[in-house]
Amino acid sequence: GAVVSQHPSRVICKSGTSVKIECRSLDFQATTMFWYRQFPKQSLMLMATSNEGSKATYEQGVEKDKFLINHASLTLSTLTVTSAHPEDSSFYICSAKIPGTPTYEQYFGPGTRLTVT
Amino acid sequence: AQSVTQLDSQVPVFEEAPVELRCNYSSSVSVYLFWYVQYPNQGLQLLLKYLSGSTLVKGINGFEAEFNKSQTSFHLRKPSVHISDTAEYFCAVTRGGSNYKLTFGKGTLLTVNP
Q1: Which of A109, A107, A42 is nearest to A79 (CA)?
Q2: Taking a contact as any Cβ pair under 8 Å apart, which residues of chain B between 65 and 94 contact chain A?
Q3: B36 and B90 in contact (C-beta within 8 Å)?
Q4: Do B99 and A102 touch (CB under 8 A)?
Q5: A43 contacts B104? CB cut-off 8 A
Q6: pLDDT tens digits for B33-84?
Q7: Which stretches does DSSP call E strand in chain B?
Q8: How far is the C-alpha of A54 from the C-alpha of A69, rounded, in Å?
Q9: What gap in Å lies between CA B14 and CA B99, rounded to an integer?
Q10: Which residues of B touch A107 (CB under 8 A)?
Q11: Min CA distance, A88 vs chain B (Å)?
């Protein structure tokens, strides 16, 4: 089956620094990837849709200057949290879909736990 | 807009007992419904989905769910659970069609005890 990986699985950074999270589709090409955020005991919230070769589409209320998304290749999307603050601490999950398939057919990565101290 | 409510945040059961994880949705249009499972340190994995047709949907690992339009529910069931079923389960909904985003519930932690 289609596999999506994320790196790192856990990261701790200091307030004010930036951190980059990678999302890779390992055995398929993904023109579209999605980034979600999950707070404890809360549902996954879609942050943005990442399209290869074009600008990401952000959901309402998500700061695009804070959460920079780059989808530079068909197998890699990155999420950079800039000037991180403790309130950015969360679980970030990416997913990817195979071109030509419905949006609801997404393959999810294992997530990245970000802790900002 | 759609929304999903998972009524139980945690469900503890004993091994070989039946289990039902509840999910209710809200939508003014037709929907597609999904159940995902997340094992520790792994990504969400699709258990089953309802797009159309028979309201009783069978998925992997012996799970099934029934779409009830009048009650706007999509409860997940398994007649006999195993220790290995311990995981977080997410219900999700999307508007019927190919290009609409998924809306997730908060998840239900199923813990199967020996």
Answers
A1: A109
A2: 90, 94
A3: yes
A4: yes
A5: yes
A6: 999 999 987 889 999 999 999 999 999 999 999 999 999 999 999 999 999 9
A7: 3-5, 10-14, 19-21, 24-26, 31-38, 45-50, 56-58, 64-68, 73-78, 87-95, 103-104, 108-113
A8: 10
A9: 40
A10: 43
A11: 19
